């Protein structure tokens, strides 16, 4: 498990041809338009997962394996909506709002 750093995310298409797209932060259909308009110019693009999806390389703040295999794009979307708020952020917000 690698807690921080550049992780290869192997996003396999689900039965409906959908994947989680980190760039767009949503579940998208991995069709020609997605690949042309978004994947090809994306700095996170790492390959086509042997024709079964897409590989994306990005710094994941979660503790995940490398490579990290995704087979459920909706679950992956949900997991990526959770943000860790650090102590420094909370201290700043408390001071700002007079808590």
Produce a short descriptive summary.
With 99 residues, this protein is an alpha+beta fold. It has helices at residues 32-39, 73-79, 87-97; strands at 6-12, 18-21, 26-29, 45-47, 53-59, 68-70.
The main pleated sheet reads as: 4 strands, mixed
Mean pLDDT: 87
Number of helices: 3
Span of the ends, CA to CA:
38 Å
| Helix fraction bin | 25-40%
How many separate structural domains? 1
Order of helices and strands: EEEHEEEHH
Output the structural class: alpha+beta
Please explain how this structure is put together.
The protein is an alpha+beta fold. The protein has one domain (6-97). The protein contains 3 helices and 6 strands; from the N terminus they run E-E-E-H-E-E-E-H-H. The strands form 2 sheets. It has a 4-stranded mixed beta sheet, with no helix packed on it. A hairpin with a 4-residue loop joins strand 2 (18-21) and strand 3. The model has no long low-confidence stretch (mean pLDDT 87).
Characteristic terms for this protein:
single chain; 99 residues; alpha+beta; four-stranded mixed beta sheet; two-stranded antiparallel ribbon; elongated
Strands, helices and their partners?
Blueprint: E1 6-12, E2 18-21, E3 26-29, H1 32-39, E4 45-47, E5 53-59, E6 68-70, H2 73-79, H3 87-97
Parallel strand pairs: 1-6
Antiparallel strand pairs: 1-5, 2-3, 4-5
């Amino acid at each position: 498990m690698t807690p921080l750093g550049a992780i290869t995310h192997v996003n396999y298409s689900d039965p409906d041809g959908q994947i989680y797209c980190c760039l767009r932060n949503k579940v998208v259909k991995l069709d020609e338009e997605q690949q042309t308009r978004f994947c090809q110019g994306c700095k996170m693009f790492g390959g086509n997962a042997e024709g079964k999806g897409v590989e994306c390389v990005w710094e994941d703040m979660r503790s995940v394996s490398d490579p990290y295999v995704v087979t459920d794009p909706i679950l992956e979307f949900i997991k990526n909506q959770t943000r860790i708020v650090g102590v420094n952020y909370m201290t700043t917000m408390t001071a700002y709002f007079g808590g």
